[in-house]
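Forwarding these from the shared drive since the link keeps breaking.
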Amino acid sequence: MRGVSSAALSPREAGFRMPAETAKHAATWVAWPSHGDLWLENLAPARTAFARLVECIAEGETAEVLVPDAEQETAARVALPTVSVRFHRVPFGDIWLRDTAPIFLTGEGGRQAASVRFAFNGWGGKYVLDHDDLVAERIVERAGKMRAFALPFVLEGGAVEVDGEGSVLTTRQCLLNRNRNPSMTEAAIEAGLRDALGCDKVLWLGDGLLNDHTDGHVDTVMRFVRPGVVVAMEARDRADPNRDALVTLVRDAETLTDARGRKLEVVRIPSPGRIEDADGRVLPASYVNYYVTNTCVVVPTYGSPFDDEAVARVGALYAGRRAVGVDCRALLTGGGALHCITQQQPLGGAS
């Protein structure tokens, strides 16, 4: 396939790394909510949330939008009448590009671009949808000329969070789960992450949120604000189903040191509390599943009493970017929010 590296080097050996999300983007890849059989009555409000996110993306970078066919492209164009986007007719199972798209990398000084893609098994075999396992390869074909790496182990982008200076956060619940890479030891997984993402040190957390479809992706519980500083949630409501898990996550993070030897500073924001679906099932609602564009930080909201505070608190962490709250209750019925449906392509020259 065009763009695949013929060299046996890993991304790290070839001088590439995954930059922090706050690094300048050339583009963000997203997929138009298209499948009525999956979204049912939540399709229209999911599209509304998607359109608001894409408006924010397009303020300062290219929005690369996957659509499965001409009919869905027409619908997306109607929903985005004033937004300049680039459409790509690529079939996909669902919109969770954080996990199905490639991860984009940069070379020394950010002057070169590359991509790395992994095996995808439907989040441990739970949600296996047609085309999802080919989305990364198809995006690579359309992302411009760059080195492209393909690694054989299972990894979803939402399972890792980098600071751009050599540290990667992840959770044992996901990466050590037997439904991902049962033949790999913890040491082998650490080595795989370092090679794939150009990192020096893996920082392990434990379990994620209750009923998280992804088995505890880190992007729903903790994010790097900048090197040495992470943001996490704390329960304000006695009925919060994640109260104990959030306490443990913060406690554990405060014991960690990053690749540069800094002890992590943990900034706390509220948790949304107990958010349920129409059947009363607890959903894995998270304010840290925000997305950082070149101009905005787009924060999910859930109709919680803590929405306004969370948007303001997250916004204050990203000086120079406008904080925008987007109602993500419909997206959450599918298992995630804004970070889960985006994949940034950092600014970088052709290799």
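-- next protein --
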Amino acid sequence: MPDILDYCKGRKAQTFKSGTVLIQEGGEEHKLFVLISGQVEIMRKDTQVSYVEEPGSMFGEMSCLLDMPYTATVKALSDVEAYVLDDAIGFLSSKPEIALEVASLLARRLYYTTSYLVDLQQQSAGRREDLDLVDKILAQLSQTPDEPKGKSR
């Protein structure tokens, strides 16, 4: 399967200086970013949750797919080059291979998140308050999210 960067060929790349915020948590621009080069950090509520430098990595896909504000801040840790796609849904639906790539990415994230939460649950044995929180998170991961109010698909 071609790399996601292959599907971006012909599009204009943008450069961001180190320290630039590409995505602001809570923002509603619904742009999709595809990393070409550089390093970024993913922050949620002022806590770093990830560091990414792999070309072809995507940011902003959850916001675009779920039609909701960005759930994290993405900040350049070095000079970054990326494709910025204004019509994310059009891009994601333009070829089945792209949708499969995004599905695979999201499945990996869900797998690691669920594994982490199960580990937390096992480590919290005997501490009911901690288990209640982990149980709630695991239950939410296994449910289909409700449609946002006023939205129809």
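Residues 96-123 form the longest helix (28 residues). Helices lie at 4-8, 61-66, 88-92, 96-123, 128-141.

- D.
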